[in-house]
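Internal tracking record. Fields below are filled automatically when a chain is submitted to the structure queue. Please do not edit lines marked as system-generated. If the sequence contains nonstandard residues, flag them in the REMARKS field before resubmitting.
Queue: standard
Priority: normal
Entity type: single polypeptide chain
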Amino acid sequence: MQNNITVKLNFEQFRDKVYACWLGKNIGGTMGGPFEGKRQILDVKGFTTESGVPLPNDDLDLQLVWLHAVEQIGPLAINCMTLGEFWLSFIPPHWNEYGIGKANMRRGLIPPLSGDYQNDWQHSNGAWIRTEIWASMAPASPALAAKYAVEDAKVDHGAGEGTYAAAFVAAMQSAAFVVGDLRRCIEIGLGTVPADCRLADSIRFTVECYDKGVPAMEARNRIQQRNADIGTGWFEAPSNVAYAVLGMLYGEGDFKKSMITAINCGDDTDCTAATVGATLGILGGTAAIPTDWRTHIGDDIVTISVNRGDICRKIPATCTELTDRVVAQTPHVLFANHAETVITDGATEIPADIGDTLLAACDHGAAVGAIKPYSMHFDFTFISVDIALDHSPDIAPNGECGVHVTCTNNWRVYDKSQYNLTLRWLLPEGFTVEGGRQTLHLPRYSSSHSPKANCMTDFVIRAGERVAPLNRCVLEIVGEGRMTPMYIPVLLLG
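SYSTEM-GENERATED OUTPUT FOLLOWS
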């Protein structure tokens, strides 16, 4: 059983917030969709689409696949590699970072390498627009929501600003289930990303503009100019997340005003509006959704980015069905991750200092900031292995690539074991390896409060005279007294 439960959420109240989240997402995606990509300040006043017909939106579509993933393999199996497999099987689009991530995975590059390699779209919008599934399954647990969002984002954004954006939005939305103050939710979201990243700078700047009384569209212009060097134009994450925050701040709690303000900033309008709608839906529940806008959209979900032919029966057709299936999974996600939140039939109980508690639980960006370009993580139950390449996974004839290996003892509490590890490389013909150690001693934890027990070594892989297009090097690690040999692929591209 869980201990130290700090938050109890009444089931019906929680479900109402989740339903409002998806309604708001659908409303914003439909209202903002017709203006996507327009860089000028707009003058949108409401819907321009047919009543009762929500527009399809990849912001929502991809999360239907993530729901399927959680239902199929369970919350503890969700990571960038497993989500990568769902990408390849069920998500057809090939545009921008989606296409780059999938093309890299098809070559054999494992996430987050798939999001790092030759990806000019690392700082774009594809990941922070699909955070609601993680926030709803990890309510009042912003660090946990951010963890899932980061695993999701690494597939197609690697160590880019797009991944930071996903952590921020997921954490902000998770906090919104129990923190009624938008400003506090923003602060908690910022607690999950590095303070010096461009995303954090853009959000802090937006809040500063609002506090100083800068007019909304003047603030928009300053944000756009501040990030003009990113290079992806209307599709870059720091500015667009800032526009969503701008809309909510300047909208001052009014659902319609907030969404219209965000849309009128231009750029990725379906994404900014959908995030505004979802976040305000979580904050205020269905009572916050204007009746006329809710009627205009209805309950249906229309998809464009999902291979329904393969999983049509497993994809929710309505916001109601999506809500019911998400809330059914939420207790499993919370329990599996030892979260200090429970869903109950009793009354909601939220400590008065919940904002401070949630902010303290965030790691101030340490986990997200620790994501290194050209790195991979492998979990083998009793130990985990991190691989970091010293440059992109390219290799020329007679070229070399440095490989940093870190092994970590996972049994901090349950086992006091320490291990002797034997390392061996299996290399393509003509390849050699230099440096490093063939045996490592992995120490045990001395207490549950001690630093992580790990051991490290560095290798240099050298190519021969001839290099193939795909060169799969495999590191074999065997733990003395353990039954599972570990095989870690390191793909180098000729």
